[in-house]
Amino acid sequence: MSPTTATQTATIQGGGQPIAHANQPPAARVASKPAGFGLPCAKCKTYYAANLKVCPVCKGTERVAPAVATIPAATPLSEETPDLAVLEAERERFLREFKAQLSTSSMQVRPTGASRCTRDENHPGASESATVCQGCYERLQERVDVLEAALHMDVKEAAQVVYDAVWADT
Predict the structure, then answer these.
(1) How far apart are CA 72 and CA 121, in angstroms?
(2) Dihedrals φ, ψ of 94, to 5°?
(3) If you write DSSP's letter for every residue of 68-129 in order, what string do you get?
(4) Rounded CA separation 130/10 (Å)
């Protein structure tokens, strides 16, 4: 094949535009690849092509040295892992103290303002003192109603409600 035939073939295969490196050897084609960016200039911090020896802005020849990130060594634990029996005994002691505090705080009833329950239909005999205010009771009753409705909900309908709630923000 003659050089003109190779150029014509390359031109036709390339969509009608001549290819500049069709007649060049493969080594010359590799050398003409565009260079990427190298490290920035040490003086002006400008990034420039990796194949340039001098910074085009400040004409400096040094580039920033690549910094290697050092990870600090993990400090060893200062104390040893406690014995499992000691740990379990401490856990049990803490739970006993916590339950004792909880029971003493729940047994303390506010002696001031002995309010009576407004739901007399629930107390046929003697009425008991109320420890929950009417507003809190109504809010809790609304939440119980929502929970009960959710329990009676169909699985497909529940899945749709969850899907709508998740994608409502987008």
Answers:
(1) 70
(2) -65, -45
(3) PPPPPPPPPPSSPPPPHHHHHHHHHHHHHHHHHHHHHHHH----SS-PBPS-GGG-SSSPPB
(4) 95
**pTM of the full predicted structure?**
0.24
- pLDDT tens digits for range 52-99: 889 999 999 998 887 776 777 776 665 667 788 888 999 999 999 988
| Cβ neighbours of residue 134 closer than 8 Å, sequence gap 6 or more | 118
What the block records as the tokens of 88 is: 């379990």
Which amino acid, residue 71? Answer: I
Measure the CA–CA gap between 90 and 98, rounded to whole angstroms: 12
Name 29's Cβ contacts closer than 8 Å, sequence gap at least 6.
Answer: 21
Task: Give CA–CA dist 24/6, Å, rounded.
Answer: 11
